[in-house]
UniProtKB/TrEMBL annotation:
Example of a GO MF term: G-protein beta-subunit binding
Residues covered by the G protein gamma domain: 3-68
Protein name: Guanine nucleotide-binding protein subunit gamma
InterPro entries with a match to the protein in the record: G-protein_gamma, G-protein_gamma-like_dom, GGL_sf
The keyword Metal-binding appears for this protein: no
């Protein structure tokens, strides 16, 4: 790797670290509580919990072939 390329890579790394340093962190317990609340609020829209209605399922195979 040339010195010019390594300097460029290090500059990108410094910029990324500056961006990450500005991000304000929160406690894990707060993040977990917020995630749990979000999941509870949106459970009624979760297709993994309640399934997809047969009429609106794009992955359901057709019952008969339209070409025959």
């Amino acid at each position: 790797m040339s010195s010019e390329a390594s300097v460029s890579a290090l500059q990108c790394l410094v910029e990324q670290l500056k961006l990450e340093a500005c991000v304000e962190g929160i406690k894990v317990s707060q993040a977990a509580a917020e995630l749990q609340q979000y999941c509870i609020q949106n459970a009624c829209n979760d297709a993994l919990l309640f399934g997809v209605p047969a009429g609106s399922n794009p992955f359901l195979e057709p019952r008969s072939c339209p070409l025959t």
